[in-house]
Amino acid sequence: MPRLVLHLLVYGLYAAAEASGRPVPDPAPRLVHEAGKVVDMSLAAAREGVVPGQRLRQAEHHCPGIERVEMEEANCRDRVRAFRELVAAVSPRVEPLGNREVLADLTGVPTPAKVARQLAVKLAERPGLLVAAGLGNSRLVARVAGRQAGDALLTHWQRKRNSLPALEPRLLGDRAALASVVPGQEAAYLAPLDLGQLWTLPPELIASLAHLGFARIGELARVPETQLFRRFGPLGSLAARSARGIDPQPVAALYPPVEVVERLAFEAGVEPGSALEGVVGVLARSAGHRLEAAGLGTLEVRLRLEAVAAGQRANPSRRRSFSRPQGGPSALEPALRHLLGEAVEELAGTFSATCLVEAVVAEFTELRPVSLEQLSFLAEGSSTAAATEGRGARLDQVLAALGRRYPKAALRLGRDLPVSRREGMLRYFDPLRRSH
Length: 436
Prior knowledge:
The chain is of the alpha+beta class. The protein has four domains: about 5-180, Alpha-Beta Plaits; about 185-245, DNA polymerase, domain 1 (Orthogonal Bundle); about 260-370, 2-Layer Sandwich (Dna Ligase, domain 1); about 380-405, no CATH class. The protein is about 40% helix and about 20% strand. The strands form three sheets. A five-stranded mixed sheet has the order 5-6-1-7-8. Strands 9, 10, 11, 12 and 13 form a five-stranded antiparallel sheet that branches. The chain has a three-stranded mixed sheet with strand order 3-2-4. It is globular and about 75 Å long.
């Protein structure tokens, strides 16, 4: 059965909500910005030519007097959750790409093109939203098609300002657009597009290819994969396949989100102090072992204290985010200790009398798969037979994954690697190159 992936991109999720999170039916010209650039905009702002990625000065040139809202002030969690739940109702595998984008696997869904159209139109019926959809046989192609539909939709709204007729055949009404790539035509669809559209490639590789003179995806697709592999290694093979629209990575089932919650309650209550630090260690070890067993890591951890003093209750909460998924107890415990210190300080400022902590709750959310790394199975630890057997099984998993990812000629086991003639000659003159 051929694979089919849907990409949805929504404009207006941030801008259609007040800074306090109160939704408004039809927002005035408004933009949401971060680091000096536009992140999102309202329908009225899109009509004036404001688009994501613009600098604030450009946006104000298009729409003088536009209201500006900083990214951290735009609270739209309910809208984001409703958007994702609507997609999850038609697909068992939903992968969020930020708050405004999702990928959904429609493989096996009856009439997927009709489902994609209906979903885009249904989302666009909500006040203040523009919806772009892309349909393709892979994550790569679907997202590229969705971005192309988004560009067409924004161009359409800019033409409306000048009362020009709609010329875009991919439009679904006034607020939605769908771009579908015919199976087998992925390479031809990508060929005229800019090389930067290959979002699955690392930015450093894109820059290196541009430095070599590649500007369009079609130019890269004409280069044999063997030549790119010889120049860039495994990333060269990835670039060659991506330029032809090949992306074997499946849609990750990351929504609805899975979370790990650890709670430890005390019958008589505990005063804030060293006793709570021991509790944090217990929570970190318990959650860390659960995450490691599932092969998952967390991107966000929250710590909440349930305290009481003189009949009054308080639940101070602190959270921390990680740049990479963290799943081991050694990584979680320092983070929880730091959050505990902040929560205890808040308790001291809330109560004048001595308070008692009745429970400590640790929540680990935004779970992601943790990649297998060398340190994870060769790290020093317990020398018991069970631990040794576990590291051996994990090593077997890593070797199997490497065998699937790289060609047989690129993967060898052991220390005896072939030495080139040039390297062999250099070893005669450079003692640092000789093995000891």
